[in-house]
Structure formats: structure tokens, C-alpha cells
From TrEMBL:
It comes from Branchiostoma belcheri (Amphioxus). This is Zinc finger CCHC domain-containing protein 4-like isoform X1. It is found in: Cytoplasm. Residues 488-500 have a biased composition (Basic residues). It holds the Pfam family N6-adenineMlase. Its main location: cytoplasm. Residues 360-421 form the CTCHY-type domain. The keyword Metal-binding applies.
Amino acid sequence: MSDRLTSAGCGVEVCLTSEAPAPHCPHGPTLLFERYIRGAPSGEKFYACSACRDRKECSFYLRYGEKMSEARQEAWANITAASQPTYTHKQFCKRLVEFRALPMSKRRFCESCSLLLLPAEWEEHSQHRVLQTVTLDQLTRPTHLLHPRENKKTNAQYLFSEKTLQFFLSQVQQLGYDRVLCVGVPRLHETIQSQRAARLSQLDSLLLDIDHRHAQFYSEEHFCHYNMFNHHFFDGGSASDACLQFLHRNHGTGIVMVTDPPFGGLVEVLCHCMKKLFSLWKEGLPDSCQETEIPTLWIFPYFMEQRIVDCLPSFRMLDYKVEYENHPLYQEGPKSKKRGSPVRIFTNLPTDRVVLPQKEGYRFCDLCRRYVAPENRHCQKCNCCTSKDGRTYVHCDLCQKCVKPAWSHCESCRRCEPRDHVCSQTQHLGGCYICGHPEHKRRECPQRFSEERYSGAERKSGKRKRKREGNNEAAQPGKKRTLEQKQKFKKQNVKGKWKQGNRQQGKQTTF
């Protein structure tokens, strides 16, 4: 799901401008992708799951323009039905009221099923791992009960460390917001709700998350089962209405969005869905208001900065290093990264308004008008604090910019590269993959639909022709195939049948 080429010279990009209705998989509407090959004007378009990068997790695949058979529609309808939660959100809320009324000795939680158990269900879960007592405090902190999901190719869940959690809470309060839209940030949401229940704070929050397990702990006003990669509310109109009411409260003022999406997700898709949330929020603002974006704090790795800024020009990266308690590298400790966590905050707020903790070494740069990390030094030539990854960058006069300290200028590549790099293997991947022009991408290339370029069908037919000619080298009158030629022919024949079988079943390469 990247628009960069692989080593084989091919890649996959998402098509966000398609007007045709997309088919559904268990994770909601699918996305339209296009697989392309270097030098080819167009490639194969297909629909695939928006949430899962691993086809083993969701194998939905449909070629663009292909009609799905009734048998296949029925099969996917059954798969979608089987993947739904055991209860609806309303039923979960009713069960929670009954569960809270039980004495603590009868409040049990099935860790195997991630389900709060009522007494009538104990026998059914007798062979599972069951927590025998659940306190009211644990009910307000479900992330301490639920085991985080760890599949990095679907929806791996990393939870804020206590230090990072307190930082976000303090920032929201200092900035003067009264409610937080938590998109994929369950630990922040539960902390806000627990403080609100204890009357320690008036701050309110709504959680939008793809993990339906949270539905059994929160009311419909405080949780929506939501896919942030296709802007899909699984519970339909009731969930979207709850989100709208939260966004439009107080005529849309006093709200901030905090989002922590999976790091493997496509930035273009995330920005596309974020803009849809911005549009919903804009509907509740007075006509005289010129604001178009919800004040946002987006948590993402620093090396995705350029992609985020390209999609959302109003966003800027802060130096604060976000830490997670259940990630071995993105936290403090002996196994953590030497330069600290690579996860940062991107925001459309004025950078001088977000105050980073000075006790951790962050300081305010008067020239840049923002708080910077202790290792980030202001470069007079670049006129900004340039460090990104936790090291102090150095200025290269030939490149006319600051670079990582371990890099040096390479005359062959005409830019700074790691000292041990191989020039032939560091070709720049930016620009157009059809004509090579650095100023535009493949999708905007004027040669993409040129009649002078060969089509995909011609390319495939030429490949088959060459293959047939190669197989028939010895199949001429008066000549016999050698044993080596026979083995080669057999191997190619088996491989061709295997590929054809995979295409018929829709088992394409994982993207």
C-alpha cells in the first residue's frame, strides 16, 4: 500500500477519487488500489480491505469492473456476519448496567473472549481464562483488562506511557479545550472518562476505534465503532449521529482531536478520512467562522513528516517524543532506542502554543517560535532547528541543508548519503516512474495514457509469445529436447499453472 516501487520495479497506490460505490468487506467499504509496473502507463485496479495490510487477515479481492457472483456475495455476507460482535452496542450497555449491579465477587471477566460475564454465562466459559473479580475502578480502565492486539499488519495497539498520557492531558487543559475527540486513543479516553466520573475534571471525550471490545464499557455517547481508513461507522446512523452531536456541541467550539493511527497505514488515506471529519465539524460552525480544520494532535513517526505536510499543509511537527508502555523500543529503559522514541506529534495548532516539558530538557527557540528537543540546535544557515531523529544535525554547504551527522557528501550521487552506501543502489525514488520527471508523480504524468506507450495487454501477450518461443527451441523438425530442456519446460509449465490458479482464486501478492 505504498506509492514507492519495490525491488521488482512495481508498486501499489490507492485511488481516492473513484466515484463508483465500493464493495464491502468485514471492515466496511473497501479501497480501490492500482498495481503498476515501471514503464507501464497503467496497471491493474482492484478493491481490497482498507484496514488490513495482510491478506491473511482479510482476503477480500475484486478486480475493478468485475461483477461479484451471487455465491461469492453470499459467502462474504456470511464472513461479515460471523465477524460481528456478539452483542449490539445497546445490548452491551444493558449488560454493563447489570454487571455493575452485581457484588464484586460475582463480577467476572473472560480474558479469552474479552467479555464481561453475567452469572448465567459462567458455565459456558468454564474452560477459558477467567478473571474472578472485577472492581469498579477496572471497569473505568478497560485497557488494563483487555489484552492489546499485537498484529502489526492489522490493528496493533500500543498504549501511552503514564508520562506521555499526563503530557496530553495537561496540554488539552492548558489550551482551554473542554472535550476531546479520541480517534484510536483508548487510554487517553478512559483516563478522561474516569476523572470525569470521579468529578476531578469537566473534560469530556468520545472514542472512535475499530476495536469493538470497548463497546461493552462505554455508552453510545462515548464510543463509536469506527474505521479510520474508510470513515465507516459500523453501527450506522446512530453512531454517526452521536459523533455529529459531539462535534457540534457548543456550536463546534472547544474541541480538539487526538489521533494515534497505525504506523503502517497510508498517510494519504488517513488524511482523506481526517478531512471528512473536518467537514462534519465545519457543518456545526457559524457561517461567519473561517475555520476549516479541527484543532488536531496527530501521533506518527517523524520520518513520515513530508507525506503528512504534503497532504495537510497546515500541519507542523513537534519535537516531543511519544512513548508507549507496551512497546519495547518506544519507551525509556535498557532496551529502548538510543535516540529515544521516533514517534512525534503533528499539529495544525500554532507551534508556540504547545508547551513541551522543560524538566525533560525541552526549551523554547525564540527564532523558530516553538519548543525543541535538547539536541536540536538552531542552524543560522537554514534559519531553523533542523534535527529530526534525536541527533544534532550538521550543515552541508554543498547540499545547502542540514543532514544527519553520520552522513557525508557523495560526489557521484551529488547529495549527502550514509558513508557506507553504494552509489548504484541509492537511486532517488521520487518523481515520476513513467517518464522520470522529478516534478510530478506517475498519476499526473502526461504520458500515462499516450498512444505511443504499449498497453498492459500487449505487454502480457509479448511475454507469452517469448515464453512460447523459448519453450519451442527444441521442438523443431529433426531436433529432440535434451533432458535439461525437458526439465526446464516442465518447471515453467508447473509455475504457469500455479500462477493461473492463484489469479483465479484472487490470491494476489500482499501489498
